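Why do we bother with holo predictions? Because pocket geometry can differ from the apo form. Keep that in mind while you read this record for alpha-D-glucopyranose.
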Amino acid sequence: MTAPHTPTFEDPLWYKDAVIYQVHIKSFFDATNDGVGDFPGLIEKLDYIAALGVNAIWLLPFYPSPRRDDGYDIADYRNVHPEYGTMADVRRFIHEAHKRDIRVITELVINHTSDQHPWFQKARAAKPGSAARDFYVWSDNDKKYDGTRIIFVDTEKSNWTWDETAQAFYWHRFFSHQPDLNFDNPKVLKEVLNIMRFWLDLGVDGLRLDAVPYLIERDGTNNENLSETHDVLKTIRAALDAHAPGRMLLAEANQWPEDAQQYFGQGDECHMSFHFPLMPRMYMAIAQEDRFPITDIMRQTPEIPELCQWAIFLRNHDELTLEMVTDSERDYLWNTYAADRRARINLGIRRRLAPLMERDRRRIELMNGLLLSMPGTPVIYYGDEIGMGDNIHLGDRDGVRTPMQWSPDRNGGFSRANPADLVLPPVMDPLYGFDAVNVEAQAADPHSLLSWMRRMLAVRKRHRAFGRGTQQFLYPGNRKVLAYLRLYPVPDGETETILCVYNLSRTAQAVELDLSAHVGRVPVDLIGGAAFPPIGQLSYLLTLPPFGFFWFILATEAALPPWHIRPSVPMPELATLVVRDGLADVLAPSARHVLESEALPAYLMRRRWFASKDHAIKSARLAQTDKIPGRSFDILLTEIEVAVGARTERYLLPLGISWDGETNAALPQQLALARIRQTRRMGYLTDAFAVDAFPLGLIRALRARTVVPVQDGEIRCLPTSHLDAVELPDNPEIQRLSAEQSNSSLIVGKKIIMKIIRRVMQGVNPEVEMVRHLTAHGYATPRPCWARSPVSAMTAASTA
Ligand code: GLC
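The structure, written out:
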């Protein structure tokens, strides 16, 4: 269910799993050093784009053009602007992109041409009513279609412009130098289809249909979204499918959801359409610290045909358009994000993402998190992945189209040309200039926005639910938190379920989520891999830092993703005991107090061999502590007396020190009771079971039949005769069988098994007694060779 998913290049639904990177050729990279970005430059930077983790590139218009609308005023549909390269370069670019599994999306700008296009030059000179004249929309007066809004309100006063040559007005929805083509003339559509085939034949994978709602005009309407326009699109789609199945059409229809949705038709118009209304509402939600703008617009968003897909975006080459919000919402957004009036243009804001978020990394990440997880295919605008700034002093929308900032070198590494020759000046202010914000620096910094984006895109790529899943909102009481599920049924019958939770506010928030439909599932953080507590019957509580967000996969216990990280067993916070002379110092009153009152009760509860874990420990003390001859005398043979209920129990816990750096093993640390410091030296006071000196010292004592006088008697080391026959090297290998059984066993030099019997009772331990007896009668089973009197607590047996 969570196996990495690599989209194949053949998949006809590739656009559903795509992440699109939007590039302006002229501003990306100038390989010819004439000051203008070009195709050879873009090819050089393809590896950068691939490494970002996107798999489609959308190119802004690169055709011959007077560039009075930055290329959307096309003068020749079948060629490339000479400053950007040659057609051979374009072919090479498509080939190189495909080699890297990157799809290419170009612009099919069909609503209008430049007034420099030969069609228009011919039309204005042609007779009224002639076929050539009819390529465009003409009128004797400028009052016709007066129910039509003006889009570029800052520049244009009318959708009609008088043409001296034609002695007539021509219709244009955008700039007056961009006459609208007349789609009532079948020859226009025929030309458009030929142009489309031309680019499909070159290998282009998708076409963005610029400004499609305005193709057809009819009296008495607002001339947007007319059914005749949809008929044109159906014809285009049919021609595309017939000529090159598997290619994609992307509608630019800046419309309300119900109208934008129409551009999918019944699955027989565009494959994709931009979700224009969602975009400003993401900005609204974070400004108002309220999820409502997002949940509200998504509720108003109709279902779309199965094979269709929204394109979602935060920013693009145009102003942040506020056409699809109410007047009061627009005022709010203008006041919040464009207090400086120079940042406003038409009905929008000409700023990039980072300045809109005031360079607040948390907010930039939050917005990108939304972009990458809302239903649809995300479109990333070049430069936003490094947090590029803008320049609101440049004309029109040029301020968000400045050169890509590659490095702190001249012109931001964009071009070696004389700065005065650059197509646009790079941003140079102290906060966003190429000195401060550039690819080179960020690529070398794991904490940069660029590195973060790369990681997020890699995570997103693993889960088809992001591109293809349905969305289900949760409505927790706290409206500052936006939460939704993305659900995608995968072939094995499971449903990939991703939970996305966003804190839209500048303060920390807690939220209770109703995840009762997913009881028993384990939320695993998609980004870090940590498994969170399983979902239970009660509401699921999460806390989020300011502008924080989570993406979780809701995994079943049985199918936890292989990359998840198990919750770590919390390491106890150990006290540090200072020893001046040696281990015995831990018995000094203050250290002893720490051990008995703080360390031991918690320690015992975690030990497998402690029998009374179901009782509260009333007290624990070091009842008997005898120094025994270890190799370095660093062993304390200790008995712990524990009061539980009405009784006391005794356990053997030999203590030793494991000094830091002397062993890499984790066991001394896991079995530690306290940290130990002797001047600069640090170590652990730990169960001597984990310290090699203990078994080795004990074997030596057995061989020497040592008798150690202790407080209330003596310890006798009583080997059987078999021990003498066992030969061990100086530093035998010591294997611990298991630290956490009722007793603890280890094997020395593959010859001796030593077992620490933990529970201490009066009399001879039956296991010791039995094994000793059997050995005496000749059984070749492990033979006990050491025991403590009067209480038997330890045996050592030779395997020889
Ligand atoms: C689209 C483009 C915009 C252009 C307009 C007119 O909206 O995105 O940049 O100015 O069409 O062609």
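Residues 1-7, 781-800 have pLDDT under 50 and may be disordered.
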